[in-house]
Design a protein that fits this description.
The protein has about 300 residues and is mainly alpha-helical. It has helices at about 1-40, 40-45, 60-65, 70-100, 110-120, 125-135, 150-165, 165-175, 180-190, 195-210, 210-215, 225-235, 245-255, 260-275, 280-290. It folds into two domains: about 1-60; about 60-290, MetI-like fold (Orthogonal Bundle), CATH 1.10.3720.10. The chain is built from 15 helices and no strands. Helix 3 (about 60-65) packs across helix 14.
């Protein structure tokens, strides 16, 4: 019987490794292809001969993209939106979830029901737009961070994690004279590093990739995030907005076959995508534990 179990376990491990390797290849292929096109020479791109390995070597697209002062301003905006938005998301979600994890909290049931309703029903885009305009949020910094700082789903996950921390810890701290805010920031949150790291990553990726709110609420292009620059380059194909030399210089490079629009588009994708990819290794050790939060009640 033990031999059969071991053989079945090995078979499962082999099949699982093959399946995961296949999924990894599917996920890596578009990234490698984007990088390959951004570095390839125009004649190979036009001929459709570029796969996942660059043909030739051409970094002219990167030089043009990185010479655009508008890109660096958008980068600054995106970093600010991401940093402030992630901090507020963790702060507001923790402050909302912690009282809900306390059994004797008076309004626990009513607030839980209220949050649950918002997961299934929302006011819609137009009422949200009207409310933000009435509150003076149009074309402001805070419109990119405040509407996204609280999610009912995240709140319930935080609550489940906090409930798994023994209640005796809070009771002991209360006896020692600590209030609930001190308990949260000094005891509970330090014990929740896996939770905070995982949702910090989720929130940072969400804020970094956010562009629809900027499209609706930000009329000043100087406040646009980097994703709006990428959208204009890739979707709208606005080469006149790329580089310091303007459309004439880029048109000359394309006419002389030293550059193609695909070089520029894929280079822009890589430049925008790379920073957020560099964040993953720093939270990887917390990620597996964090995504399992709430799956097992201990």
């Amino acid at each position: 019987m033990r031999t059969r179990i071991r053989d079945g376990s090995k078979t499962f491990d082999v099949i699982n490794c093959i399946f995961i390797s296949f999924i990894c290849c599917i996920m890596l292929y578009p990234i490698l292809r984007v990088v390959a096109i951004s570095l390839s020479e125009p004649k190979y791109i036009v001929a459709g001969q570029v796969g996942i390995i660059p043909r030739g070597f051409n970094i002219l697209g990167y030089k043009i993209i990185l010479s655009n002062p508008e890109l660096w301003n958008a980068y600054k905006n995106t970093i600010l939106y991401t940093a402030v938005g992630t901090f507020l998301t963790l702060l507001v979600t923790s402050l909302t979830a912690f009282p809900l994890s306390i059994n004797d909290f008076m309004f626990k049931k009513s607030i839980t029901i209220y949050l649950a309703i918002t997961m299934f029903f929302s006011g819609g885009l137009i009422p949200t737009y009207i409310m933000i305009v009435k509150m003076g949020g149009l074309n402001s910094f805070w419109v990119m961070v405040l509407p996204m700082c609280l999610s009912a789903y995240n709140t319930f996950i935080f609550r489940s994690f906090f409930q798994n921390i023994p209640a005796e810890i809070r009771e002991s701290a209360l006896i020692d004279g600590a209030n609930d805010l001190r308990i949260l920031f000094v005891i509970i949150l330090p014990l929740s590093k896996a939770l905070l790291a995982t949702f910090a990553l989720f929130s940072a990726v969400s804020h970094w990739n956010s562009w629809f709110q900027a499209l609706i609420y930000l009329q000043d292009m100087k406040k646009h995030p980097v994703q709006m620059i990428l959208r204009r380059i890739v979707v709208d194909e606005r080469t006149d907005l790329i580089g310091g030399g303007g459309e004439t210089e880029i048109g000359d490079l394309i006419a002389t076959q030293l550059l193609t629009p695909r070089n520029l588009q894929m280079a822009a994708v890589v430049v925008v995508m790379l920073p957020i990819l560099c964040v993953y290794p720093f939270v990887q050790r917390h990620f597996v534990k964090g995504v399992m939060i709430g799956s097992i009640k201990g």
